[in-house]
């Protein structure tokens, strides 16, 4: 794995953790991209580089935690 791949996966991991943390506080339907980005410490554009929407992030988070 090269440096850019590592950075990509680390960023995705941060967003996964942010989503899990937010899910402890509220229902998925009420979680926004803005909240995920703030919690993960990433820009909104970075979120959309990885995912089309919050449902895509949720799907990946579920897959990674099984």
Summarize the structure in short:
The protein is mainly α and 66 residues long. The protein contains 4 helices and no strands.
Structural overview:
This protein has helices spanning 3-23, 33-40, 44-50, 54-64. The chain is globular and about 35 Å long. The model has no long low-confidence stretch (mean pLDDT 93). Helix 1 (3-23) packs across helix 2 and helix 1 crosses helix 4. The chain is built from 4 helices and no strands. With 66 residues, the chain is mainly alpha-helical.
In helices, the fraction of residues equals over 70%
> How many whole angstroms does the radius of gyration measure?
11 Å
Quaternary organisation of the protein chains: single chain
Low-confidence stretches: none
What would you call the structural class? mainly alpha
What is the average of the pLDDT values? 93
Count all strands and give the number.
0
Strand content: under 5%
Q: Please write the string of helix (H) and strand (E) elements.
A: HHHH
Based on CA inertia axes, which overall geometry fits?
A: globular
């Amino acid at each position: 794995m090269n440096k850019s791949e590592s950075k990509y996966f680390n960023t995705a991991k941060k967003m996964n953790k942010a989503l899990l943390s937010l899910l402890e506080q509220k229902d998925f339907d009420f979680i926004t991209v803005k909240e995920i980005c703030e919690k993960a410490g990433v820009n909104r554009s970075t979120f959309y580089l990885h995912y089309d929407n919050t449902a895509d992030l949720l799907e990946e988070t579920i897959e990674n935690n099984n």
